[in-house]
Design brief:
The structure is a homodimer.
Chain A lengths: L7 H24 L5 H8 L3 H7 L3 H11 L4 H6 L7 H20 L1 H13 L5 H23 L9 H22 L5 H14 L5
Chain B binds a DNA duplex through helix 1 and helix 3.
Amino acid sequence: MEAKKENSRVIKAAQTKKRIYDSALILFKRHGFGTSVDSIVEMAGVSKGSFYSHYNSKFSLIIDYVNNLDLGYADFFTSLPSDIPPSSMLILVTEKIMDVIINDVGIDLIKLSYEAQITKTVNTDIQLSYDRKLYQIYNQIIQLGVQQGEFKSTLDIESVSKHCIMSIRGITYEWCIRFPDFDPKDEIIKHLNLLLSGIKKG
Amino acid sequence: MEAKKENSRVIKAAQTKKRIYDSALILFKRHGFGTSVDSIVEMAGVSKGSFYSHYNSKFSLIIDYVNNLDLGYADFFTSLPSDIPPSSMLILVTEKIMDVIINDVGIDLIKLSYEAQITKTVNTDIQLSYDRKLYQIYNQIIQLGVQQGEFKSTLDIESVSKHCIMSIRGITYEWCIRFPDFDPKDEIIKHLNLLLSGIKKG
DNA sequence: TTTAGTCACTGACTTTAGTCAATTATACAG
DNA sequence: CTGTATAATTGACTAAAGTCAGTGACTAAA
């Protein structure tokens, strides 16, 4: 990963990319994410080829946008009082995440993003860094739960954290395919409660 | 839902649909699921419009195919000895389902099918009937667990069944986006064990 | 300064999914 | 048997994503 020299060529390229990105955002807001690449490049005043030298696909741009949203999970987590039980932290953080997904990101973007992940014309690096932040939060909570004796000491903390995040993604996928007859916030809470307390007796 | 009379018109239409379907399968096997609709109708000797009067979209045909696979879950379930604990049944059935998904259906079809579910120009009725069968199996197992006293009597059986199936779908989605660096069978078992025993102490 | 090479950029082109008005074949009522 | 309604089928057409050989402005090395 070498930083490119800031010569005029590089600067112009960055300006072009930004023009494409900005035009896309305006058109997305105006006409939704079905906006064609043709209309984006027309508004940006560049050629189609230029679009594709900056973005691998139409999805790439959308994923760029999603990943640049500041979702503010980390802030929410650090703002939590530290004297509540870790199981409650888990629930609260997860509720917050679902709120953001439902209200700030929205069904259309989530669908596109999940579709892009499957078809993957897309560089997943940024997506993974997003995961890493989430993962750290869950890891901390579960570690805390084990330390404080609320959670089983036999837990594989890393694995459990990953499974919490997978549950969020799973429920969000379910939301995509069942929309609007599915309440993802309600369901993720039910799922977490199952994960916390288990199905088996004692 | 009225049964159509079997006049020659209906029979011919069914034959046309079958010719399209069979050609598609041959081409899918030969060139993968990227096969174009044009080449399918060329091989079937029908027009493109005809294709679209039988299938809403290219995905529809693929979904049709996936749903017509006899996945044999039900048989596997009924062949289980009835004296093993319900928690083991849950694990065994789920392992079987994952085996089928991984080996009989395969990553390419699963990806297409999951993509189709998200983009959904597609009639989900058949997908739902597939779910219904699975759902019945899980419902029975969990009911048995409650009756025999292995599972908590306070469980909402229907909700827990749904969440088991959602977990399968969630993990399968994860497999799609992480392939090949993800072992869905291993992970679904871990997830189920968490669901069964819980994270919290006693 | 010259010159070879790089890189953003161009736009016509290809590919493919999906549409729809027109056409043809069949069913059915009188 | 005749005319009319209905359903299946056609294929030219649209729309949109993505490609690629070519262009010229800019960089950097001699």
